[in-house]
Structure formats: structure tokens, C-alpha cells
Here is the input.
Amino acid sequence: MPPRVRPPVWLWFNLLSLDAPLVALVWQDFLARCYPTVLHPSGRLVLGLTVWAIYLADRLLDVRHPATLGESIRHRFYRRHHVFARTLLVTVVATDLLLTCFWLRPAVLDNGLLLTAGVITYLGIFPLRRWGATAWKKPLAALLFTAGTFLIAWTGAGRSVRDLVWPAVAFCALCLGNLLMIGHWSQAAPSRLFTFHRAWISVLCISVLFLAGCIAAAFGASWFTAVICSAAGLCALARWDRKLSPAACCVLADVVLLTPLLFR
Here is the structure.
């Protein structure tokens, strides 16, 4: 058993898996302003609680198996505090179900059931079958995260799904780059494919920059400008990550996704 080391205060937000719900809520609000959509408080709360519950469940499923040598800080945290994490998960899920059943709009609820099926598949296939390291996990997670963020906008009356295709594609690619980088930095020891992964992630981020830049130039949309800023931040982290600790890189990878706050 590795020695108990109290994590620094600035890392607690990440360890409690609160960063992902914050990112989802910030982009959901920004989407509603860029592409006018009716966004009720219940819709915001359900998204935040749902994303939080998924991340808590994913972490707890990851630590069902015996600890491995050089386990990440995040997994050590959930292994040592599994009782607290389980209690927190039950509380979050119960609150989420209450809001969903009594306050969420029926149209949003109906579309959300399809997304729920995808989430159940994700939580069932990867952690339970120990496929967490497969190439499909992070792309599927990015797709589900994007679908949840765009759910209310897609459900909005009078809005064509085609209007949101390119914003969703750019955001999904951005989320995938974020997840790949965090997944690499969460490894206790660099993999043999370290150089290849860094180059691949950099290419992905640059591709996002190019795609979003072209669309922003064509349509002048603030959405793509924010995507560009976040992708540029991820590129900078991929380039200079050796100057920071892996934990700091994981935190900053989520911080650079909060660029919509600059467009108030």
C-alpha cells in the first residue's frame, strides 16, 4: 500500500470529479447564448448532476479491482475514500432522479433516455469488463459528453439539428483531446508510446484549431472562437507539459476548457 499523502487543496476539485460538471455547464450555457435556446434551471442542474454521477461511478468502478503498482492519485483517492464516494454517488443520483422526474421538460426527458442507454453501455462495457485502456473508451466518452451538453439545444423547438452539427463536431474533438491528454498524464509512468501520443494529441489539437478557425472565419461565431482558444491552450500544455507536474497538467487541461467565461 503506497504511503498516505494528503493531496494539495488545489487538487481537491479535480479529485472530487467536479471539474467535468463545471465544464459541461459552462459550455451548455454558452451554447444557449450562441444559438438561442430556452435553458431552464432544472436543465442545468440535471446536466451537472448527471455528469458528476457518471464520473463518480466511473472512478468507483475503476477501483473495484486490486490496486496496481504506481496507481494514479485519482484512483488512490477513490480507493481510500470509497465509502465517502459511494455515499456521495447515491446522494447525487437520488437528487438527479428527483429533478429529472418532477422538473425536467418531457421532451428533454424523452431524448435523454437514449443518452442514458449510451451511458449505461459505457459504464457496463469498459470498467466492468476491464476494457478501460482500449482505444474506444475516450472517443465514446467525448461523444457522450458532447451529446449531454447539446441535448437541450437539440431538443429546442424550431431548431434544426443541422445547425448544431459543426459546433458539436468541434466541441467533441476538443473534448477528445482533453481526455487523451488527461489519460496520459494520469499514468504513473510514461508509456513507451509517450512521444507518439504527444505528437498525436498535438496534431488533434491543431486540427481542431484549423477546423474551428475556418468555420469561425466563415460564420464569425463566438462558439468557434472559444473552441479555438481552448484548443490553443491544450496545444500549449502538450508542448510544455514537462515543466509541470502531471497533476497540475490534468487540472489545467480542464481550466483551459473554461474559455466561454471570457465571452460574457
Q: What stands out?
A: The two ends are 47 Å apart (CA to CA).
